[in-house]
């Protein structure tokens, strides 16, 4: 059985030799190393999130899927099989099988929304061959989808009109691994049994009138609050959508009676917000099917320690699931000897290299395993770290908090991403510094966080990313700010270029009237962002330029005698 404790027991060498030959499982002996824990969410992220789209609308193929792809996100698309056609013209605004097959091949999940989109609580149970019955709607839609989408099994189901009862859920379990309805709060991080068949997605009901992109801003804030709750509580957030079209087509969709159509501009803002949280390791963005697999594998995960020496750790990793669809890689942490800096990892045909990090008093390797796919073997590797960080400090400076660090060697090092956490808030990305690629000489770096000027404790870490996209975090450094700002300042907006949201930070050394305005390249005033009295302190505002064309713009602050102007680029 699995053992996730970190109890350390010294075992005499002679006994170890005997055990290596005959094997002892982790359930009967507490080994010094090889103790394994499964992370709640993939990559050790704090929460999870899924995009879901209902009905099989053509706009999902035309607009939604390409938009998600541009952020490297994948969604779950629930289709009504009777509404899809082989070729165009289709049925009203619904898509074709070729379109959704293409989306499936691109990694999006294709789930079932029944054959005819009937309220399942109103029909007889029937059988799988009798049209208009519950079992027919569940089984035949799955069979049709798997016949059309050849690269994946149809394992996720969405209840039409969000309606279900105990009869519906018990029969849904016969064919699917999850059932989705609606819900106003994020989903628990641990589910059992029938709980997987009552998961709920959050739907935004956009208020009228919707005569500008900005009119949907309150729903954007509402979604961000919903997902921030998921991050804070470590839960699974989920968004439900139907039609997705550019704002220019919104009047037509509303006229046609579309169900709360979502604009591509609004969805872009959601993706940008989630991308920042994903880059900060706050959110894991995946399909319903893959998150369901991960959760069920995680809850039934077991491991046996077969061997541990100073240079090797060998594990047998299994779960209690017999369904062949459960092959999603779990993220695990394994304790290894303290002198290990890296390990070559081998499980069947999967091979990888990972670097260690310290967690409490343990030296840890984080890697990925698929239960029941062969022994997991970790071999100590004398591989130089991609970045040998020799110093990392944070000090209070005139213009903010100065971060300084140096490296002795760098291999394939692309960049350092600077992340900050204030008090008990989440980690956020605040900037980046280019790495030196390959170097065997001392390199010094620095970064000024000129937005950390209000009182409080600030913690920082470096995300060191190589050219292959792999990364490792530095240790955390902290500093406490006990004074209010002594100067006026206006920071460069972030991100820049942006589309359509950007943040602007500024500080005030005394109370007074403040204006922040935006101008186009020839000096015409575009927007007034702030025009009010403000006390001494540091501030941050967000500008949504969704209804503004691409181009170069300037933003200017005026507070008393202090005036400063900076340039920003809107790129759509």
Q: Could you write a compact summary of the structure shown?
A:
It contains 9 helices and 32 strands.
Looking at this protein, list some descriptive labels.
TIM Barrel, disordered N terminus, 4 domains, Immunoglobulin-like, 18% helix, eight-stranded parallel β-sheet, alpha+beta, 9 helices, single chain, 572 residues, eight-stranded antiparallel β-sheet
List the helices and strands and how they pair.
Layout: H1 13-22, E1 36-38, E2 47-55, H2 58-70, E3 76-79, H3 97-105, E4 109-112, H4 134-148, E5 156-158, H5 166-172, E6 178-182, E7 199-203, H6 217-233, E8 236-241, E9 244-245, H7 250-255, E10 262-263, H8 264-279, E11 283-285, H9 288-299, E12 301-308, E13 312-319, E14 330-336, E15 342-347, E16 350-359, E17 362-369, E18 376-380, E19 387-397, E20 400-422, E21 428-439, E22 443-449, E23 456-466, E24 471-473, E25 477-481, E26 489-490, E27 501-508, E28 512-519, E29 525-534, E30 537-544, E31 551-559, E32 562-570
Parallel strand pairs: 2-3, 2-8, 2-11, 3-4, 5-6, 6-7, 7-8, 9-10
Antiparallel strand pairs: 1-14, 12-13, 13-18, 14-17, 15-16, 15-18, 16-17, 19-20, 20-21, 20-22, 20-23, 23-24, 23-25, 26-27, 27-30, 28-29, 28-31, 31-32
Helix pairs in contact: 2-8, 6-8
Structure description:
- Helix content is 18%, strand content 39%.
- The chain has 572 residues and is an alpha+beta fold.
- The chain has 4 domains: 13-32 and 301-380, Immunoglobulin-like; 45-294, Glycoside hydrolase/deacetylase (TIM Barrel); 387-481, Immunoglobulin-like, CATH 2.60.40.10; 489-570, Macroglobulin (MG2) domain (Immunoglobulin-like).
- A hairpin with a 4-residue loop joins β23 (456-466) and β24.
- α2 (58-70) packs parallel to α8 (264-279).
């Amino acid at each position: 059985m699995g053992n996730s404790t970190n109890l350390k027991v010294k075992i005499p060498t002679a006994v170890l030799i005997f055990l290596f030959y005959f094997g002892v499982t982790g359930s009967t002996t507490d080994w010094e190393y090889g103790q394994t824990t499964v992370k709640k969410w993939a990559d050790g992220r704090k929460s999870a999130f899924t995009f879901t789209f209902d009905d099989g609308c053509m706009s999902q193929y035309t607009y939604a899927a390409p938009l998600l792809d541009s952020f490297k996100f994948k969604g779950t698309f629930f289709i009504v099989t009777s509404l899809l056609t082989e070729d165009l013209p289709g049925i009203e605004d619904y898509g074709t099988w070729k379109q959704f097959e293409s989306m499936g091949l691109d990694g999006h999940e294709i789930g079932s929304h029944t054959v005819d989109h009937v309220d399942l609580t109103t029909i007889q149970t029937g059988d799988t061959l009798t049209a208009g019955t519950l079992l027919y709607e569940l089984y035949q839609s799955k069979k049709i989808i798997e016949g059309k989408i050849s690269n994946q099994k149809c394992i996720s189901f969405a209840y039409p009109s969000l309606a279900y009862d105990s009869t519906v859920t018990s029969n849904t379990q016969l064919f699917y691994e999850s059932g989705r309805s609606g819900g106003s709060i994020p989903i628990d991080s641990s589910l059992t049994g029938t709980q997987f068949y009552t998961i709920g997605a959050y739907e935004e009901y956009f208020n009228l009138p919707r005569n500008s992109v900005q009119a949907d801003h309150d729903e954007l804030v509402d979604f961000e609050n919903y997902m921030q709750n998921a991050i804070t509580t470590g839960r699974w957030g989920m968004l439900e959508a139907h039609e997705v079209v550019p704002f220019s087509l919104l009047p037509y969709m509303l006229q046609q009676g579309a169900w709360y159509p979502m604009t591509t501009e609004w969805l872009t803002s959601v993706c940008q917000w989630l991308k920042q949280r994903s880059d900060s390791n706050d959110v894991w963005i995946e399909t319903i099917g893959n998150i369901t697999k991960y959760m069920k594998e995680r809850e039934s995960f077991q491991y046996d320690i077969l061997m541990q020496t100073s240079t090797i750790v060998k594990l047998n990793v299994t779960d209690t699931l017999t369904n062949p669809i459960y092959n999603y890689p779990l993220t695990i942490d394994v304790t290894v000897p303290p002198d290990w800096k890296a390990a070559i990892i081998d499980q069947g045909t999967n091979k990888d290299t990972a670097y260690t990090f310290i967690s409490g008093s343990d030296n840890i390797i984080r890697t990925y395993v698929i239960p029941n796919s062969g022994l997991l073997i970790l071999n100590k590797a004398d591989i130089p770290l991609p970045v040998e960080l020799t110093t990392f400090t944070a000090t209070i400076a005139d213009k903010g908090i100065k971060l300084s660090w140096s490296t002795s060697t760098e291999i394939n090092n692309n960049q350092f991403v600077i992340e900050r956490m204030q008090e008990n808030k989440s980690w956020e990305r605040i900037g980046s510094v280019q790495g030196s690629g390959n170097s065997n000489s001392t390199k010094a770096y620095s970064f000024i966080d000129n937005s950390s000027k209000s009182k409080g404790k600030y913690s920082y870490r470096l995300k060191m990313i190589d050219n292959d996209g792999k990364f490792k975090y530095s240790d955390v450094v902290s500093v406490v700010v006990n004074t209010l700002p002594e100067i006026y300042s206006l920071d460069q907006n972030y991100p820049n270029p942006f589309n359509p949201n950007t943040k602007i930070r500024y500080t005030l050394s005394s109370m007074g009237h403040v204006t922040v305005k935006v101008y186009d390249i020839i000096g015409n005033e575009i927007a007034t962002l702030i025009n009010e009295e403000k006390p001494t302190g540091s501030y941050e505002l967000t500008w949504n330029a969704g209804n503004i064309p691409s181009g170069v713009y300037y933003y200017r602050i005026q507070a008393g005698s202090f005036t400063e102007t900076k340039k920003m680029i809107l790129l759509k």
